[in-house]
Amino acid sequence: MRNFRNRIAEKYLKINTKNNIQKRKTTSFRQIKTIGILYDATYEDTVKEVKNAIKKLKALGKDVYSLGYVNTKVLPTNRSPHTRDDFFCKQDLHWYQLPKKDRVGRFTNETFDYLLNVYSLDQLPLVGVSALSKAHCRLGSFHRKYTGCYDVMLNEKGNKTATELLDAYILFLYKLKHE
Predict the structure, then answer these.
(1) Domain boundaries, the chain
(2) Which of 39, 51, 152, 178 lies 20 to 30 Å (CA to CA) from residue 119?
């Protein structure tokens, strides 16, 4: 059943990426105004790491929004949604493990300068959000199966923590130069 569900999800991902026609572009770090962070919020350590990175980016003058996926049936009480910091869980997914558009639509319809995908590979609910995103540039870790869900992929070896991924993405963005 799991393989069947994954095949259906991958089919929907392909459809969503084909239908998500946006003008993609990169921006130099100095010109970035908005950043979206998409991450696995199941573990408290990861949430703390992402919040710490958000503080750093805000100190640099960036407007940051985040969406975390909690791998539980219902949201825990300590993961209540806020204006710039939202969460979703299993009850917000279709039976084939992709998120319902009405639940993540506010985040996916934002035209962030960059969407940073901070999660381990094969997280279908998070990959689904990235596929729907209207961000100008979606940055993620390399995965051959999901090339249509990201615009730029970094080949990060091994399992990285949220801090390590965010540091790699921010360093990449900082090195981008535009005339």
Answers:
(1) 2-175
(2) 178
| 58-117 pLDDT per residue, tens | 999 999 999 999 999 998 888 777 778 899 999 999 998 899 989 999 999 999 999 999
Query: Mutual orientation of helices 101-108 and 124-132 as an angle, nearest 10°?
Result: 50
Tokens (6 digits) for 112: 């962030």
Angle, CA 87 vertex, CA 163 and CA 49 arms, to 5°:
15
Structure tokens at 7: 């095949």
Which residues in 78-116 are b (16+ Cβ under 10 Å) and which e? ebeeeeebbbbbeebbeebbbbeeebbeebbeeebbbbb
On whether the pTM is more than 0.85, the answer is yes
